[in-house]
Structure formats: structure tokens, C-alpha cells
Amino acid sequence: MKKEAKQTPPPSPTADQDGAGDDRLSALDDDLCELILRLAHLNVRELVRTSVLSKRWRGLWKRLPVLDFFGWPEFKSAGEVQQYIAIVNDVLEQRAGATSESSTMYWSSERLNVHTCANVRLPHGEGVQGRAWLSSANVRLPRTAVFSSLKDLTLEFVELAAGSGHRLARLLSSVCCPSLQKLRMMCVDLLRAGTKELVLDTGELLELSMEAVEGMELLELRTPKLLYLEIDECYHESLRVSAPRLEDLTYVCNRAFIHDPLPRVWRLKIDLLTHMEDDDDDGDANSSSICLLKRCSSSVRCLLVHPLLVPSGDKRQADLIKDKIPQLPNVTSLLVSIAHTCECHSFGDGVAGLLTRFKNLEYLSLQSDICPKTDEYYSADDVDSAFTCNHPDHWESSNISLANLRKADFRGMTGTGCELRFLRFVLANATDLQSVTVSFNLYFIEEELQDSWMHYFLHTLLGDGMWTTCENEDQDFEKLYKCSSSAELLKTAVLRHRNLQI
């Protein structure tokens, strides 16, 4: 007879095991605890509170790769401001003792008065690793510190404490941050910092973005590996750039000239003013941009003009583009954001002079950015005056050659007759055209007129093309159409409508 297997009942839990059963959080391994904290998306104040869950969780938050100081409640007194700053400083000091291969710190004091609060101190040593983001704070920089693992640093809405400006260059140098690859400075105030010069000597830096950095007269870049550079509204008087590998350059709203060689820049973004205005005594508004175009004319393949400022017709005087900008035969892609300062009937006059500088464009994008006004909102009562333009088209004499153009995008159109005439003029020599995209700014067209007028506009532009509605993120304010066909069919459409009077 087969002997039945003896079943052993599970052992009764001991007191210690009972305690462990009650404290299941302590039984989790560190990696799982860290994963839970990551997925919870808690800010630092909430993370610190998790230390009370059990002994195992005390200080576990220090191991997280991201520390978030956002989401702080409204400050109601100076004491709460001081308490917030003390917490930030204490957390950073504690974080200095933690080890991690990569780390990010985000903190913001958007609701405190940074001019009256105490200073936030950057920690010494390895407290900041991987990535750091300082936002909306008065920052006191350390005298001596080395952040050997820091690769990504953002200083945003930051005011440097009085007398600490000379430390900024050291903080950003290869001595202090030998691994720094990405640096972003936005709305950084150096006025009280006690220095007007900033020399960035960073051997590993790949990306640098500076926007609205105040109080800086001299900027010098010693960045042998830099690939991307953006300088926007930094009104320094002198700029020196040593970046032999630079490929992508944005230089907008700056007056300082760049005289240094930039042999590898293939993508360039600048701003331009088309005409001098009546009350403008500065005829050199485009000087720094034109100087940059001349320096990069042989290497640039993609040019972005953002913005192209177009004064209204009654204020335009001397042309600041025609015969001043060099010919750019190597540019194959042109993207223009047109900013009309007063009204929308200056579309063609502002763009035509720029287009004469190119002979080999394959892609053209014109984005019209107009803020609608009450008297420019077109309705059924004034549609004739709104869309019918009787003013002279000065651009008709412009020598525009787009024989190689394959793709054209026209965004933010208001539907005026002068827009339609100009777009037809632009496409008149586009004999290799394959795709045309047109979007309309619905602010300017009464809803009951939208379909009929847009249909007329599109089929007058390219009557034989097959227009289709495209998906658009902002369907309530912009309607997007695309015409794609064979180059021969679009060529026929262009030729057929070239002489159509509008």
C-alpha cells in the first residue's frame, strides 16, 4: 500500500516575523523602493516626508536621479521665504554625500521676491551630478568646487549675488565642470555680480544657449567641441567665438559682430529688418546679421530668418536688404517668419527683396505672424475692402528665381488679394514644384466666408492641383491644406494661372 506523503504545516510566525509582516515597506529592496519614489513624481518636500515610513526609507530620497523643488506653496511671510531657502540649502548639502551616476536638480522660487530673500548656495563636491537646473533664485556661487560628473546645467531667471560674478566663469570652466556638455542661461542678471566680462573655457561643451543675459559687455567663447550655439537678446558690445566645429548657430537681436571664422556652420538663424522706418535713425539695424551671413555664405545650407520685421507701407523708407545681403547660392532651405508691425498688406514687399538673394532653393517656408486687431477682422460686410488690394505691388520688378524649388509652405495666410498675387508671383518660376502647403489664419476670415474664400484662394493659386485638408494642432485658429502632385502637373498649373488677373 502506497504511503501517503506527510504534509508539514507552515511554521507559526515568530514575534519578529510578525513585526516584519506589519512593516512590509522595510522588506522591499532598495531598487524597488527607489522605483516607487520615481514613479510617484514627488517634489523634495514630499520625498523627505517618506523618511517617516520606516528606518529603511530614511534618506532613500537622496539616491534619486531627479530632485524637484517645484510645487511649493505660496509664501506668506519673509520667514517662510527664509525657511524655503534653508530647506533648499540643507537638501543640497545632504545630497552632496549621496552617490549616483546621473542626477538632476530642479528648483524654482517663482513666488518669492528674489531681491529680498537669502542666497541659495551651490553645494561643494559631488552634490550635483548629471544635470542641474536653477530657476528663479538669487544664487551665491561657491569659491572652490569641482563637479566632475555634471553634464547638463541650466541657469534660469537667476540673479547672481553681489560680488560673485568672477566665480561664474570658473563654475562653467573645464576646471570646475570637466564633463559639462550642455549649458543654458536664460534671464541671468549679472548687473550686481561685479563683472562685465564672461569667458567660457569649456573643453567638452557641445551645446550653449544664452537668452537675455544682462550686464555683460564682453563674451568670449573658448569651446573647441561646440556644435550648437544660441545667443538671443544678449546686448553685449564685444563677442569672440573660438568654435571650429560649430554647425548650428542662432544669433538673434544682438548688435555685436562676429568676426571669427565659422567654417562648418550649415544652419544659421538670424533676424532682419526689411526697411528703415520714418522715425528710425539707425541704418545699421541689420549690420551684425549681414556680417554673419557674409562670414558663413560658403557653408550655410539652411537659413532661418526669425523674425523678418516688415514695417507698414506708410512708414517704409530705405530698403535695408536689397543689394546689402550677399548672394547665397549654397542655401537650399529658407524658412522665414514674417512679423508685420502694423498691418497685413505688406507681405510681398518685405519678402521679395530677400528672395532675390537665392538661386538654388529647394524648400521655402513663409510664416506670416500677425496679431489680429478689431479693425482687421474681416466680415461679410467689408469683405471687398478687406481682400481687394488696390495698392501697387512694388515686388513685381524683383528678380526671383526658384527653378529648383520642390516644396513650398505658406503658413498663416489672411486671404488678401496681395497675398494671393505675391504667392503666384513666387511660384511662377517654380518649374520643378512637387508639393505646396497653405494654411489660413482663421482670425481674419468670418466663419461663413471661410470655405468659399479659401477654395477660391487655393484654386486661383494652383487650380489643377489636388488640394486636401491636413491635420493641424490648432484647428480652431488655423486651417491647413496641402497640394501634392507630379511636378509636371503643378508646372502646368503654375503656367496656366501665371497671367490670371486678381
Automatic annotation (TrEMBL):
It comes from the Eukaryota. Residues 1-23 are annotated as: Disordered. InterPro entries: F-box-like_dom_sf (IPR036047), FBL15-like (IPR055312). This is F-box domain-containing protein.
